[in-house]
Design a protein that fits this description.
Length: 68
């Protein structure tokens, strides 16, 4: 087995021993002009009042609020 493959195998084994594993998420590339245009169009349709309520809720339930 090649050296990089051994290192990756060792790293995965360490993570599994800790009860975690790598998960890959694939999403749209925000650098793509078509994706950026689609995001801009969707943002134009957002209701600012509804978004404010959503953000307030997220802040209220955020576990990171305790670190401030």
């Amino acid at each position: 087995m090649a050296e990089p493959a051994k290192r990756m195998k060792t790293m995965r084994e360490r993570r599994r021993a800790k009860g975690t594993r790598e998960v890959r998420i694939v999403g749209p590339d925000p650098r793509d002009p078509a994706v950026r245009a689609q995001i801009a169009e969707q943002m134009k349709r957002l209701d600012p009042a509804a978004e404010e309520q959503s953000l307030l809720w997220i802040e209220a339930v955020s576990m990171f609020d305790e670190t401030r």
